[in-house]
């Protein structure tokens, strides 16, 4: 109903989403984007009243990412994406062992805290979903790409 299984001459099975499957994927991605926007607005309201830390003449908000941290998170996502394409072993069911791609996605969480780590992991999961999607069921999209990669920030 949501996908069509196609088997080629070598016995490899490929799953092609139907029109209903594509529509449901778009609806799920739109709902996740709306949830992210609502979460960001709630965080902005919290940061408006968050305590500031005095550093000499400069006052900085503790809960916001600095430009350096944001650039590091972006570089971690880029490096993780490049390393995810270096496959050491490819499993027949679709998984693979890559060269340290998960390590660089975990680093922002260790160095910059929970928020930066989860945001980096979810952004990496969305990028992996766009580059090489393998979705059989809409709930799998959330679990395999968003929750699993987002959990790397923990």
Secondary structure tally, helices = 5
CATH-derived topology:
Arp2/3 complex 21 kDa subunit ARPC3
Biggest beta sheet summary = 2 strands, antiparallel
- Walk across the major sheet and give the strand order: 1-2
The H-and-E topology, N to C, reads as EEHEEHEEHHH
Radius of gyration: 19 Å
Number of domains in the coordinates?
A: 1
Structural class: alpha+beta
Number of strands: 6
Under CATH at level 1, the class stands as Mainly Alpha
Unreliable spans: none
Distance between the termini: 36 Å
Helical residue percent band = 55-70%
Percent range for β-strand residues: 15-25%
> How much is the average pLDDT?
81
The CATH architecture is Orthogonal Bundle
- General form: flat
List keywords for this structure.
two-stranded antiparallel sheet; alpha+beta; flat; 6 strands; 16% strand; 154 residues; Arp2/3 complex 21 kDa subunit ARPC3
Provide the fold topology.
Elements: E1 3-7, E2 13-17, H1 19-48, E3 52-55, E4 58-61, H2 67-84, E5 87-90, E6 96-98, H3 101-112, H4 114-131, H5 138-150
Helix pairs in contact: 2-3, 2-4, 3-4, 4-5
Structural write-up:
With 154 residues, the protein is of the alpha+beta class. The chain has a single domain (3-49, 63-153), classed as Arp2/3 complex 21 kDa subunit ARPC3 (Orthogonal Bundle), CATH 1.10.1760. It is 59% helix and 16% strand. It has helices spanning 19-48, 67-84, 101-112, 114-131, 138-150; strands spanning 3-7, 13-17, 52-55, 58-61, 87-90, 96-98. The strands form three sheets. It has a two-stranded antiparallel sheet with strand order 1-2. Helix 2 runs antiparallel to helix 3. The two termini are 36 Å apart. The mean pLDDT is 81.
């Amino acid at each position: 109903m949501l996908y069509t299984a196609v088997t080629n001459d070598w016995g490899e099975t490929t799953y092609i989403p139907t029109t209903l499957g594509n529509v449901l994927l778009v609806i799920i991605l739109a709902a996740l984007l709306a949830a992210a926007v609502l979460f960001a607005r709630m965080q902005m309201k919290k940061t408006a009243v968050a305590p500031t830390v005095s550093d000499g003449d400069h006052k900085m908000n503790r809960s916001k990412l600095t430009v350096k941290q944001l650039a590091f998170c972006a570089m971690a996502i880029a490096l993780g994406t490049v390393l995810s394409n270096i496959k050491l072993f490819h499993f027949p069911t679709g998984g693979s062992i890559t060269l340290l791609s998960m390590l660089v996605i975990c680093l922002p969480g260790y160095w910059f805290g929970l928020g930066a780590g989860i945001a980096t992991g979810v952004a990496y999961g969305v990028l992996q979903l766009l580059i090489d999607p393998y979705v059989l069921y809409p709930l799998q999209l959330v679990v395999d790409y968003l929750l699993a990669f987002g959990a790397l920030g923990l």
